[in-house]
């Protein structure tokens, strides 16, 4: 079994570098591409078990091939176009060129580095927004607008959307009708009780002489 803190690096070109590391039963692989303006990294993690021999890097016509040998068997990863692809079947390495990988101290590459990061704190729930204050009616020239309820007035015209709030108003009894002038000027015969006018001198019913009011 190899040293668990041992990693290997290799230069694929002047701008690409490969780093592979065995951390426990995981194999972390990182491919870094650098240019004059930026640097990009691709990495993957495989459950391979502990290595039994150092990894081997091959250059083939189809691209770079990385071979990992562990107690669980052999694993092949293709490096092409800045991407890492795990092969499901062993590739043909006939005539392939073997490139050396340099051992370096382990740097906790890839998935193990991600697992060692501090857990993220849960996000506190947002407090509800306070209710909006009621807006006063807006006045523009002879036009007035109100939001609650939605009303708009312009001169003698009025438009309303929605139903205004209903308020209870106590009922006021209607005043009693005033007596008419005809009723207040009417009198009755003292003999037979027939209604007569103020201008009558004799009762039309019984002929009784009426006294002046």
Strand and helix layout:
Blueprint: E1 6-11, E2 16-23, E3 26-34, E4 39-47, E5 56-60, E6 63-70, E7 73-80, E8 83-86, E9 97-99, E10 102-105, H1 111-115, E11 138-140, E12 143-146, E13 150-154, E14 157-161, H2 181-184, E15 186-188, E16 195-197
Antiparallel strand pairs: 1-2, 1-10, 2-3, 3-4, 5-6, 5-9, 6-7, 7-8, 11-12, 12-13, 13-14, 15-16
How would you describe this structure to a colleague?
There is one protein chain. The protein has 213 residues and is mostly beta strands. It has helices spanning 111-115, 181-184; strands at 6-11, 16-23, 26-34, 39-47, 56-60, 63-70, 73-80, 83-86, 97-99, 102-105, 138-140, 143-146, 150-154, 157-161, 186-188, 195-197. Strand 5 (56-60) and strand 6 form a beta hairpin. The chain starts with 5 loop residues before the first strand and ends in a 16-residue tail after the last strand. Residues 109-121 have low confidence and may be disordered.
- How many DSSP-defined strands? 16
What overall form do the CA principal axes indicate? Answer: rod-shaped
Provide the spatial order of strands within the biggest beta sheet: 4-3-2-1-10
How is the biggest beta sheet arranged?
Answer: 5 strands, antiparallel
Tally the helices: what do you get? 2
Ends apart, CA distance between termini: 143 Å
Which secondary-structure class do the elements indicate? mainly beta
Low-confidence stretches: 109-121
Q: Give the C-alpha Rg.
A: 53 Å
Report the order of strands and helices. EEEEEEEEEEHEEEEHEE
Give the mean pLDDT.
76
Q: Helix fraction?
A: under 10%
């Amino acid at each position: 079994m190899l040293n668990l803190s041992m990693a290997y690096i290799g230069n694929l070109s002047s701008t690409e570098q490969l780093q592979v590391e065995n951390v426990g039963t995981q194999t972390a692989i990182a491919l870094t591409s650098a240019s004059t303006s930026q640097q990009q990294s691709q990495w993957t993690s495989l459950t391979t078990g502990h290595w039994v021999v150092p990894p081997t890097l091959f250059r083939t016509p189809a691209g770079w091939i990385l071979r990992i040998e562990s107690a669980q068997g052999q694993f092949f990863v293709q490096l092409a176009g800045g991407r890492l692809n795990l092969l499901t079947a062993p590739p043909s390495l006939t005539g392939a060129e073997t490139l050396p990988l340099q051992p370096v101290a382990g740097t906790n590459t890839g998935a193990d580095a991600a697992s060692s990061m501090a857990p993220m704190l849960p996000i506190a729930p947002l407090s509800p927004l306070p209710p909006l204050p009621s807006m006063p009616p807006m006045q523009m020239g002879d036009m007035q607008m109100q939001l609650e309820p939605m009303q708009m007035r312009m001169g003698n015209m009025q438009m309303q959307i929605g139903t205004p709030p209903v308020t209870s108003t106590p009922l006021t009894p209607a005043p009693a009708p005033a007596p008419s002038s005809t009723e207040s000027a009417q009198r009755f015969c003292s003999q037979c009780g027939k209604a007569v006018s103020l201008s009558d001198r004799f009762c039309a019913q019984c002929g009784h002489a009426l006294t002046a009011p």
